[in-house]
Amino acid sequence: MKHQTLFEQLWFTWRVRQGQDIANCGEDEILPQWERETLAGVFLNLLDRERDLEETHKDIIDFYLFCRNNLAQSKAQIYQDLWVLFMTKEKTSGFFVEFGACDGIFMSNTWLLEKKYKWSGILAEPNPHWADSLLLNREAHIDHSCVYRSTGDVVEMRCVTQAPELSHVADIVPSDIHQREGNRENITVEQVNTISLEDLLRKYNAPHIIDYLSIDTEGSELEILQSFRFDRYDVRLISVEHAGDESKREAIRETLESRGFQRWYPELTRWDDWYINMQ
Does the structural domain 73-277 have CATH classification 2.40.128? Predict the structure, then answer.
């Protein structure tokens, strides 16, 4: 007989209700142990399903264990760097492309690949706030153009003073959680030159195989992907931020699936989606 889901099992729903009651009563010293016991029960439940060949959670469990063993190395915000290493079986000497790159360390999806696994690649970051530190921190090719739908335009870059990682192209207003919560209020405006993703790759003689493409441009991700000729390069893995903008997220999914990509366990990737090339 098929196992019930967690939400149908009395032990799980009881523990959740009890945990909420404990928190509401202010008994904070009890909560960590209660949480550990609940997590242990969840993992045992997953193992039961594996044993009975009902369903597999092997990839999720294996990824969790891989991350746990390598947490100290990661610079990425939600373990994108560890996902790349997990998917490539800790490949050395691969090739990455990352934009925006910030200072090359802060929330970097590729620092670990470059520094510990001898990957090479291209970093693009148009915000002048990061320019000097990016050059200092990284060995990859660095471009200060704004990766966008086409090359040769000049666009306004709205640079967020207090959180420069949230800066974006002015003619695309993000519809994400940061915009809704007013996290982009203090800005300066810079004029920046644009370059298409394809021209960026040509400029630095990128190889045909791009092992990992990291896209986080605070709103223009879809336009960049829609204008890229995927038939000219073999892109293996992609992480792309959607930041809670569900309409953009769905459009990105449709764009990438039409080009042979499959989304990898979106329940694990929070405000990103991660894609693998299935062709």
Answer: no
